[in-house]
């Protein structure tokens, strides 16, 4: 505990969006993994949140009061995540944007509910949080929707058998995705011929690749971060260059393309994000993000930007207060996002279009759109 306390004291806290003097700022917490090899989601989310706050403040903020981000690094550690959330609650933030993975969100779930603290996660998708009367909202669709939709796609592509490799570090997400995929795949008549798990930062991915190559699977489903997926695919492709590889959207970031290189060409992923979406709001966001950060927009960036916009809509109605914020967010109705509209249900969950993307020439290219109304 002492170790984690020291880490918390060293946690980067960044205030963005307000100068000294003037109207009293409204503090908004942001918590995600911002350091280490699995920080791509958190860094993209933070950078997009900064842009969103700047745009809102330039337009007058919330009834004349500027938003101010209070940013903390949870380091991908559940204990640090709990310490970070405790610190943000004590600092008096009106809401928390975060966390970036389901495992860290689960770690703080009881904490935020006991504090009546609204949390909006851009990327947490585990079914663990589905249908609960709580203070948790999310911008992305659930693992049940994504896992089952991918199972249908894999099966309709002619693959009736597949192996699965999943990361136990983010088990709240990976196990939920795996179980939903397996249930739908079996229902269709498919067979999961091999299941392997690993613990990120501990297990050698070459061992995973060797086990896969020994079994010669018909197809492969990866449920892992971009960092780990890239390493596994590189090692596996050296032993088996032709097996089709499918993946959860967790890996769909620039990290996969950079670290995976030619090995990830042809890899197929599912996520509620279209990097080629034509919505003018999304195109403007792409331009601003590229101008500031000189890198492509990821799903984590887009969803984080939307999370700030959603929170701002709620705060406009509560005049910057936490009182009634949860109820207001639940009743917002259709929300104009960066890629069309979405809407919270009574539990803060959303249904959004899903996209099947393939890595082609070093980019993610959408090959199939699954409308929200057609999701399982």
Automatic annotation (TrEMBL):
It holds the Pfam family Peripla_BP_6. Residues 25-361 form the Leucine-binding protein domain. Keywords: Amino-acid transport, Signal, Transport. GO terms for biological process: amino acid transport. InterPro entries: BCAA_transport (IPR051010), Leu-bd (IPR028081), Leu_Ile_Val-bd (IPR000709), Peripla_BP_I (IPR028082). Belongs to the leucine-binding protein family. This is Leucine-binding protein domain-containing protein.
């Amino acid at each position: 505990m002492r170790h984690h306390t020291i880490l918390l004291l060293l946690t980067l806290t960044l205030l963005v969006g307000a100068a000294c003097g003037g109207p009293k700022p409204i503090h908004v917490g942001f918590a995600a993994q911002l350091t280490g090899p699995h920080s791509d989601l958190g860094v993209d989310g933070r950078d997009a949140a900064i842009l969103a706050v700047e745009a809102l403040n330039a337009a007058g903020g919330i009834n004349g009061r500027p938003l101010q981000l209070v940013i903390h690094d949870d380091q991908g550690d559940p204990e640090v995540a709990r310490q970070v959330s405790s610190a943000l609650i004590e600092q008096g933030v009106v809401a928390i944007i975060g966390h970036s993975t389901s495992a860290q969100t689960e770690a703080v779930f009881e904490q935020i509910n006991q504090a009546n603290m609204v949390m909006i996660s851009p990327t947490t998708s585990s079914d663990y949080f589905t249908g609960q009367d709580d203070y948790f909202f999310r911008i992305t669709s659930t693992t049940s929707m994504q896992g089952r939709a991918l199972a249908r796609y894999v099966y309709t592509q002619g693959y009736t058998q597949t192996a699965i490799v999943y990361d136990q570090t983010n088990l709240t997400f990976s196990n939920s995705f795996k179980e939903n995929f397996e249930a739908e795949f079996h229902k269709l008549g498919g067979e999961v011929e091999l299941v392997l798990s690993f613990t990120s930062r501990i297990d050698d991915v070459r061992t995973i690749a060797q086990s896969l190559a020994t079994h010669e699977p018909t197809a492969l489903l990866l449920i892992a971060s971009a960092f780990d997926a890239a390493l596994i695919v590189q090692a596996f492709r050296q032993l088996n260059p032709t097996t089709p590889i499918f993946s959860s959207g967790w890996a769909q970031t620039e990290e996969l393309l950079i670290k995976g290189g030619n090995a990830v060409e042809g890899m197929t992923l599912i996520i509620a994000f279209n990097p080629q979406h034509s919505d003018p709001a999304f195109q403007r966001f792409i331009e601003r993000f590229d101008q500031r950060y000189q890198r492509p927009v990821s799903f984590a960036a887009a969803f984080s930007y939307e999370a700030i916009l959603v929170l701002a809509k709620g705060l406009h109605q509560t005049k910057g207060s936490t009182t009634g914020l949860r109820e207001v967010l639940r009743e917002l109705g259709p929300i104009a996002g960066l890629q069309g509209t979405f809407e919270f249900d009574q539990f803060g969950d959303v249904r959004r279009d899903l996209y099947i993307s393939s890595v082609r020439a070093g980019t993610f290219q959408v090959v199939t759109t699954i409308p929200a109304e057609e999701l399982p």
